[in-house]
Amino acid sequence: MTRDAVLQDLKGKFREDILDFSDKSPKRVYIEIKPEVLVPAATYIFKDLGARFHIASGLDARTHLEILYHFSIETMNLLISLRVKLDKKNPKVDSLANVIKGANWIEREIHELLGIDFPGHPDLHRLLLAREWPEGVYPLRADYKEWDKKAIRDRGV
Amino acid sequence: MSVTLKALLKSPWVFHLSTGSCNNCDIEILDCLTPRFDIERFGMKLAGSIRHADVLLVTGSCNRKSMVRVKNIYEEQVPKPCVVVAVGECSMSRGMFVHSYNCPMPLDKYIPVDVYIPGCPPKPEAIIAGVVKLITKLKGTL
Amino acid sequence: MQKSVISIGPFHPLQEEPEHFSLTVEGETVVDVDVEIGYNHRGIEKLSERRNFEQSTFVIERICGICSTSHPFAYTRAVEDIIPVVVPERAQYIRTIIAEGERIHSHLLWYGLAGHFLGYNTVYMWMWRLREEILDVMEILSGNRNSYAMFKPGGVRRDINADDIPLALKKIDSIIPTLDRLKKAILDDPVLHARLKGIGILSKEEAINYCALGPTSRASGVDRDVRKNAPYGAYDKVDWDMIVTDSGDVWGKAVVRLLEIYESIKIMKSCLQQIPSGEIDLKLKSIPPGEGIGAAEAPRGETFHYVRSDGTNRPVRHKVRAPTFMNLPTCKATVPGSSISDAAIILASIDPCYCCTERMAVCTPEGDRICTGKDLIMMSREKTAKIKREMGIP
Q: Do C319 and A59 count as a contact with CB atoms less than 8 A apart?
C-alpha cells in the first residue's frame, strides 16, 4: 500500500468518527477522533497496518485535556498521531493495555500525573510518585500548586 | 574514636549511593576504579555491603522516594564513624532541579555532609582530589 | 511448592541506579518478576515548561549521562519539526559524529558491567580502559567527557577544529586491535556460549507486542532502527549496516552490541573524513505555534520527544519517552521460567537506564528474604565457575 492509499483507507473506515484530519507533511499526519472509537482505531492501525506504537502523550490544554497516541508505519516513514480530547471534569478513555502490551506503563503514568481514568486497565496503581504524595494532586496540570510546606526552593546563596 | 578512624584512614572502603541522579557522577565514580585512575592503589575499594562502608559517596538530587531509604540507611545500617561526601552539583544543592516537584530539599538537610565535590559531573581527578582532602582534614583532627 | 520472594535493591552495589526488583521463586525457578521504579523521577517535563527552548536543551541533556546525546538530538529535531526546517549539512555531520561516539562508549560500558556480573573482572577492566580512549576523543572534539553541550535548536553550538580531526582519527584507530582481540575472546569462548545461549529468550511476537526497541528488539529478529527507517543527520550519507540476529537470548543481545561498535566506528570515521564546510547554525529567532515530533536512536533504542509551542519562547508541553520505558516491561516475558542464577544477567541484558525511564524525571510484597541481591550476583558467578569446571578450563 502507498501512503495515500493508507490514508484513504483510514478515512473510509472511520468516516463519521474523524473530527479533524491534518496532513501536515509527508511524514506527519495528525488525526482527531472521538474518544469512543479509540480502541477500534488503534487496534486497526497496530494490528492490520502493522504500525509500531511509540508512546501516548497527555497534556493539559487549559480548556480540556488531550491525549495523543503516536504510531509509525516504518516501511513508508509515516508517523500517525491520534488525538482525543477529554472533558476536564471527568476525563476518561478506554484502556489500550489489553490490545498493546506496550501501552500498560504509559497509561499508569498519565493516570497519576494528569488524573485521567482508563477503564479496563488491568492494574492502575502508582508508577513514579512516592507513597506520601497526596491523592488528587496532579503535577502536570496547569493549575498545580506547591503543596509541600517544607520544600526549600532557593539555593541558599 | 581516633583509633578506629586512624585505622580506617589507611584503607577507606567507599560505598556509593544514588538518590536520583542522571548517572554521570556515578559513572565518573566507577571510572576512578578502572586502570587509568585506579584509586585502589590508595587502598580505597568499593565495599560490597553498606555495613562495611567507611565513606559514603552520595550523588543525585534527593528524590522523595530515595530519601526515605537513605535516611533509614544512614541512621540504622551504616556503622559510625562514617564520612559523607556529596559528589556533584545535584547532591550539593539540587543544581538545575531546584524547582522540581519531586526534589524538595538538598542533601545536607537530611544527613550531615562532610565534603562537597562540585562539578557536573566532576572529573575523576576532582573526585580523587576531594577524597584526599577529606583524609587530610580527618588526619588533622586526630 | 512454597513460593518465596527475593528483593533486589533499591541500593545495590553493582547497579548504579536505584530501582527495586522483586522475584517470586519456587525452588530454583523464577515464576514472576515485578519492578518498582520512581527512585529517579525528577519532574523534568514540568521543568521544561519554565525554561525557554534553548535553555531546555541543558536540562534535557542531564536526563541521562550515558545517553546524553540522544535526548538533545531528539528534542532539537522536535523543535525544528514545529516550523519545519532542516539544519545545515555541517551541523548534521557534527551531530552524527557526537552521537556515534556516545554509542561506542555506551556499548563498551555495558560489556564491562556484563563481564562483572558474570565473574569476568578482567573484561570489565579492559573494556573500561578502552572506553577512556573514546572519552579522550570526545574531549578533543567537544571539550567534555560526558555532557557535551553541543546541540541547540537550529544547529550546533560549537564547531569542530580541522586540526583536531587527525588526532581523533588516530585515537579511534588505536582501539581497533584491542577490540579485535576482545571480540575473538568473547565470541569464541565456550564458557560464554554455554552460559548465555538460550537464556532470557524474547520471541519476535513478544518483542512486537511490548514495542521493544534497540538491541533488545534487534536481537529478536525485529529490524527496527530509526537511523535506517527514518534517516536523519548524516546517516543516509555514509555506508553502514544494521545488525539483526534472531536468537532473542542474552547471547544475541551481546553479539548485536559488539558488532554495532564496529559499525559506529565506521560511521564516525567516514563522517570525520567527509565533513563538508559551511554554516553550523540557522540562528532561529522564534518558534511559531504548533507541535513537533523528533526521534533519535540512542544506544538502548529510540528516544522520542514531542513538543508543543504556542508562539511564546517556552514550550507548553514537552513529552519525553526513553527507550528503557518500553524495554523494561519485557522482563515479564524473559525472566519467568529461568533459574535464579540467570536472573541477574537477564535483567542486565536489556541495558536498563532508569534515569531515562523516569526522567522527567517494582514491588515490595514483604515476603521472606532468603537471599539479597548480592547473593544473586554471587550465584551468577558460581554458575560460570561450575561450567568452567565441567569443561576442564582452569
A: yes
Average pLDDT, chain C: 85
Residue written as cell 543525585?
Answer: B60
Which CATH number covers residue B89? 3.40.50.12280
Q: Which long-range contacts (CB under 8 A, 24 or more apart) does C83-86 make?
A: C83/C284, C83/C287, C83/C288, C83/C290, C83/C292, C84/A25, C84/C292, C85/C154, C85/C282, C85/C284
User: Domain range spanning residue A109?
Assistant: 3-114
Chains in contact with C, where contact means 3 or more Cβ–Cβ distances below 8 Å, are A, B
What's the pLDDT tens digit per position in C317-376?
999 998 888 998 898 889 888 888 888 788 888 877 655 554 432 222 333 344 555 666
Which residues have CB under 8 Å from C38's CB, separation 6+? A126, A127, A128, A129, A130, B65, C358
A-B interface: how many C-beta pairs under 8 angstroms?
28
Task: Quote the pLDDT of residue A38.
Answer: 93
pLDDT at C302 over 50: yes
Chain C contacts of A112, Cβ < 8 Å?
none
Q: Residue C145 and residue C136: Cα distance in Å, rounded?
A: 7
First to last CA, chain B: 9
Look over chain A and give the mean of its residue pLDDT values, rounded to a whole number: 90
Question: Which pLDDT does position C114 carry in this prediction?
Answer: 85
Answer yes or no: is A146 within a domain: no
Inspect the interface and report whether the beta carbons of C125 and B103 lie closer than 8 Å.
no
Closest Cβ–Cβ partner in B65, B68, B105 for A151: B105
The pLDDT assigned to C354 comes to 59
In a domain, A154, yes or no: no
Q: What is the 3-state secondary structure (H, E, C) of C342-390?
A: HHHHHHHHCCCCHHHHCCCCCCCCCCCCCCCHHHHHHHHHHHHHHHHHH
Whether residues A70 and C306 touch (CB distance < 8 A) is answered with: yes
C376/C340 Cα distance (integer angstroms)? 7
The phi-psi region of residue C198 (left if phi > 0; otherwise alpha if psi is between -120 and 50; otherwise beta) is left
3-state DSSP of B30-86 = HHCCCCCCCHHHHCCEECCCHHHCCEEEEECCCCHHHHHHHHHHHHHHCCCCCEEEE
Interface test with B, best of A113, A126, A155, A157 (most B CBs within 10 A): A155
- A119 and B CB contact within 8 Å: no
Residue A126 CA to residue A105 CA, distance in Å, equals 10
- Judge whether A12 is closer than 8 Å to chain B, CB to CB: no
Residue-wise pLDDT tens digits, A69-120: 999 998 888 999 999 999 999 999 999 999 999 899 999 999 999 999 999 9
Query: Would you say residue A33 lies in a domain?
Result: yes
Which residue range is the domain that position B28 belongs to?
A: 2-140
**CATH number of the CATH domain containing A54:** 3.30.460.80
Q: Is residue A77 part of a domain?
A: yes
Interface confidence: ipTM more than 0.90? yes
Please state, in angstroms and rounded to a whole number, the distance separating the CA atoms of residues A125 and C363: 11
Superfamily of domain C44-325: Cytochrome-c3 Hydrogenase, chain B (1.10.645.10)
Cross-strand partners of A86:
A65
Q: Please name the chains neighbouring A, where neighbouring means 3+ C-beta pairs under 8 angstroms.
A: B, C
How many structural domains is chain B composed of? 1
pTM of the full structure: 0.91
Nearest to C374 among B19, B46, B49 (CB): B49
pLDDT of residue C358: 47
Q: What angle separates helix C121-142 from helix C89-118, to the nearest 10 degrees?
A: 160
Query: Distance from A100 to chain B by nearest Cα, in Å?
Result: 29
